[in-house]
Design goal:
With about 400 residues, the chain is of the alpha/beta class. It has 2 domains: about 270 residues, Mur-like, catalytic domain (UDP-N-acetylmuramoyl-L-alanine:D-glutamate ligase, 3-Layer(aba) Sandwich), CATH 3.40.1190; about 120 residues, Alpha-Beta Complex (Protein-Tyrosine Phosphatase, Chain A), CATH 3.90.190.20. The protein contains 13 helices and 17 strands. Strands 4-3-2-5-1-6-7-8 form an 8-stranded mixed sheet, with helices on both faces. A 6-stranded mixed sheet has the order 12-13-17-14-15-16, sandwiched between helices. Helix 1 runs parallel beside helix 4, helix 2 packs across helix 8 and helix 10 packs parallel to helix 11.
Length: about 400
């Protein structure tokens, strides 16, 4: 059994508020209060930052819990101990445990996922749980935790129908995970975040470019120098692609160093180098070049294409794209058209996907009604001078990963 199977006959609704998850957690003796935790929010990069941070803790001999979303290949990915996914048997056990509480308090799917993480991490006696916030921060079910420190990677316009249509409103929601007496690490120096955090009297605040910084020396692979207070470390390297991943890793490292003073620099280097995260500027094939990336808003899409152009300056790009209807997909399509030599739009097998009707009047876009057909068409049409790039939704990326595995 999978947890989402309990919700297949329900609408996947989002209903702000912490009362349901508080009552549900209390029914199990408040398992969320039995281990230390960190909360990570932000518009882009929070999953990658969570992975870097988990690796830093684990390489320093702490037993870690990692809670992320969404999953790409299988639901078990959402709950990990020391980077090992929960087993099918344990997942079924916890589902049977929490099912009555889901029904009693009418939990959302994400709230049920969060509750399962609380129970699993308690039972496994983790030293620290790293939690990727689902949406926003203030009303996210993870926010009943009392984190040792909080991280906000950045803010840009996404989920505006829920979080607000200005950067300041979105920053206000995401800053809900910060605690006055615990460190807040910001993966950007955006004034919307800095000014609001200061106004809320959160301290200490450690912000990128202000309190810590990096200097990128190489982009493939990523090698950079890092500075934080009196700590200067040259030639740190990561395996993930993209300059923004260097910022994510530095943000995670700053959080780690603000909390764990007994660090070992060799363990730090290995932790960053060994970190991996599916579906984020991931190269699936070198011949032909096939790359997938879960960019799902304008800012992320633009950065991903800029990275591609930097890594492969003389290559043409064929892009396969899809998105959910609640995204600003027309604006993303305009960005993608500017960077792509060929653009294929496809339809995902979910009710919220965009389809042919949504792109009427948009020129220079091919429409293929299944991901498998779109992938075959894209692969058949590329040569050694062309990259096949899949982007727009993590759901799309997950489906392509499954097809490429076959």
């Amino acid at each position: 059994m999978k947890l989402y199977s309990l919700f297949q006959k329900k609408e996947f609704f989002i209903n702000p508020g912490l009362e349901r998850i508080k009552k549900a957690s209390k029914a199990f003796g408040n398992p969320h209060s039995t281990f230390k935790s960190v909360l990570i929010s932000g518009t882009n990069g929070k999953g990658s930052t969570a992975v870097f941070l988990e690796s830093l803790f684990r390489h320093h001999n702490l037993k870690t819990g990692l809670f992320t979303s969404p999953h790409l290949l299988k639901e078990n990915e959402r709950w990990q101990i020391n980077r090992r996914e929960i087993s099918d048997e344990k997942l079924e056990f916890y589902i049977s445990q929490i099912k009555p509480v889901i029904d009693r308090y009418n939990l959302t799917y994400f709230e049920a996922c969060t509750l399962l993480a609380f129970l699993y991490f308690r039972d496994e006696k983790v030293d620290i749980g790293v939690f990727e916030v689902g949406l926003g921060g203030r009303w996210d079910s993870t926010n009943i935790l009392e984190p040792e420190f909080s991280i906000i990677t950045n803010v840009s316009l996404d989920h505006t129908h829920l979080l607000g249509d200005t950067l300041r409103q979105i920053a206000e929601e995401k800053l809900g995970i910060a605690r006055k007496d615990k460190p807040l690490i910001l993966g950007s120096n955006q004034k919307e975040l800095l000014e609001l955090a200061q106004k809320k009297q959160i301290k200490p605040i450690l912000a990128y470019k202000k309190d810590f910084d990096i200097k990128i020396k190489s982009t493939n692979p990523i090698v950079f120098d890092y500075r934080f207070k009196e700590i200067v470390q040259n030639d740190l390297s990561i395996s993930m692609l993209g300059r923004y991943q260097a910022i994510n890793s530095a943000t995670a490292l700053t959080g780690f160093l603000s909390y764990w003073r007994k660090y070992d620099i060799e363990k730090v280097k290995k932790a960053l180098k060994d970190s991996y995260w599916l579906g984020r500027l991931q190269v699936l094939s070198d011949n032909p070049i096939v790359i997938v990336d879960g960019a799902h808003n304008e800012d992320a899409v633009k950065k991903s294409f800029q990275e591609l152009k930097d890594m492969y300056p003389n290559k043409k790009i064929t892009t396969i794209y899809s998105a959910m209807k609640d995204k600003k997909y027309k604006k993303m399509l305009n960005i993608i058209k500017n960077y792509s030599d060929r653009l294929i739009l496809t339809k995902m097998p979910v009710s919220r996907t965009i389809d042919r009707e949504d792109i009427l009047g948009i020129t220079e876009v091919e429409y293929i009604d299944s991901i498998e057909k779109a992938l075959k068409t894209g692969l058949d049409g590329i040569d050694s001078d062309t990259i096949l790039f899949v982007t727009g939704s993590l759901y799309l990326v997950g489906e392509v990963l499954k097809l490429m595995q076959k």
